[in-house]
Amino acid sequence: MTPFELHPGTSPVILAFPHTGTEVPDDIVSRLNAEGTKLRDTDWHIHELYAGLLPNATTVRATFHRYVIDANRDPSGQSLYPGQNTTGLVPTTDFDNQPIWKPGQEPAATDIAERLERFHRPYHAALEAEIARVKALHGIAVVYDCHSIRSRCPFLFGGVLPDFNIGTDNGATCAPEIERAVAEICGKADGYTSVLNGRFRGGWTTRHYGRPEADVHAIQMELAQITHLATETLPFDLDAAKAGRLRSVLADILTAIEEIAKALPKGRRP
Description:
By secondary structure, the protein is an alpha/beta fold. The protein is 30% helix and 14% strand. It has a single domain (4-263), classed as Aminopeptidase (3-Layer(aba) Sandwich), CATH 3.40.630.40. It is built from 6 helices and 7 strands, in the order ββααβαββαβαβα. It has a 7-stranded mixed sheet, with helices on both faces. α4 links the parallel β5 (164-167) and β6 (194-196). The chain is globular and about 55 Å long.
């Protein structure tokens, strides 16, 4: 299998999709238990939701499932949220803390090392190359990392998650103009709730690539799945009416980011 799909564009904006892939190679799927093979923790339909919203944007999408290896985790295995429940580089449980591997078939250190080379690194090599290409075109690149999760997930967070969860690692990963514009659009979106740097402050992708001083900005958007799915249970079908309404807001966000990126001063690295 090819570990990523790439569609180069001419915009300064790059859309990254680390968690929409559902491919699991035969040698790995045979080790998953019945729960694991359901692949519940997919960012269902997110690449479809964003399709065509910013026609000239570059897209980089991981095709492999996060149970193979999580493309939005630090390759060192270090936790993104120390002290909080989360899933690791190669998860051993799902978002409900249920085991996903057959007994005795859990990934070992050698499996993780092999999957880093086979899946994680090729995806990020492609993303890094596109950042460099886009920055060469515009003097700036903005990585918009696209995610979703169930609105209720007690193992990971209490209560109900807001609809729009914006992550910039507390302002460290992008220019304040970008953060402010996205927060304002989400805050004014009728019928939706939003939060900036709440439970999700940006995963490894956002924190690793977001270097505003080097004219590379990154921002994560974690959408509550109830905003676009018929239900947050299998079969996780897309709701066309919900998706159409949400796409209008997302289009405004991406357009604003692109306009700001073009206007921001470049070459600010000392």
